[in-house]
Design a protein that fits this description.
The chain is an alpha+beta fold. The protein has one domain. Helix content is 30%, strand content 15%. A hairpin with a 3-residue loop joins strand 3 and strand 4. It starts with 9 loop residues before the first helix and ends in a 10-residue tail after the last strand.
């Protein structure tokens, strides 16, 4: 019987799993961490490589991951995580912030991937500290965050 046609023994499977765990640990020791969405390893020390909120997500997967994660969160937890994500996209990846065009606007201005998020200035309230309309979101409480760096195509 050839080596490739041998039946898979339970001991071999456990041995392979131990070896894979050792390889993953070695990658972590080398400063690489895994994206929970695409499973690729990236250098964690590189600023902005991974978004960290208890789960590590790479830039390319961030919008797809957020669309999946968002409905699973309680409202206050979602708002806090969204705020961190928006800041990470803006400050680490130079995403553009576009404010809505007017009161009736509910869709993004382009077909590009985007995130509709609570305004980072008024925290989604639509009011400034003086009680007037927030100038950042024109009182709607939302902004569009549009990545400027290329994203990988969505998972299917």
């Amino acid at each position: 019987m050839s080596e490739s046609s041998k039946p898979n023994l339970p001991g071999e499977s456990a041995s392979v799993e131990v070896e894979l765990a050792a390889l993953r640990n070695a990658l972590v020791l080398l400063g690489l961490k895994q994206c929970v969405w695409c499973r690729k390893y990236l250098r964690f020390a590189e600023p902005g490589a991974l978004f960290d909120v208890g789960e590590l997500v790479c830039y390319s997967c961030s919008l797809d991951w957020w669309k999946n994660k968002c409905p699973q969160l309680a409202e206050n937890e979602r708002a806090a995580m969204e705020h961190k994500l928006v800041h990470w996209l803006i400050y680490q990846h130079h995403a553009k912030v576009i404010r809505p065009a007017g009161k009736g606007a509910e869709t993004a201005p382009t077909d590009a991937p985007h995130l509709v998020a609570s305004c980072i200035e008024c925290l989604g309230k639509g009011k400034d500290t003086g009680g007037g309309h927030c100038s950042h979101c024109i009182g709607l409480g939302i902004i569009w965050v549009i990545p400027t760096e290329k994203l990988r195509p969505a998972h299917t």
